[in-house]
What we know:
Blueprint: H1 21-49, H2 58-68, H3 75-79, E1 90-95, E2 98-108, E3 114-124, E4 129-136
Antiparallel strand pairs: 1-2, 2-3, 3-4
Amino acid sequence: YVKSGDVVLDLAGGLGGGVGVSKVVKSVDRFTQLKKTNASIYKKLDTYLLNANHIDGKSKAKFFKEVLGYDRNNINKLAKQIKFNQKTATKKSTNQYGIKYQQIIKIEGANGKLVDVKFGWIRSKDGVVRLVTGFPSK
């Protein structure tokens, strides 16, 4: 039951004319999954990919800063460009945590430069896609 004032987001491609309860629930579930995916993007950028002090991530932070002009101070502009797209992502493997994907996304740097960046993702058992890593595609 959807009452006036409820927000029903169509993130999965059209609910059509008659909105059934199961479709509303699926849209809400999909919205929750997308929120978690977006949160994973910001977290991975902040704690790893743009963190010049991270033991494993500092070389990636150097790439994002020197080549694209991104660091933790302008994280939002970069994060908005990083979106998982199952149509362009390549399935790489499956393990006990979920399905791993790679996806190349053309990123516009804060400096205006366009660079293909390869991103690693995982779709966990709960259906949420999370950002794992990012690095130059060459």
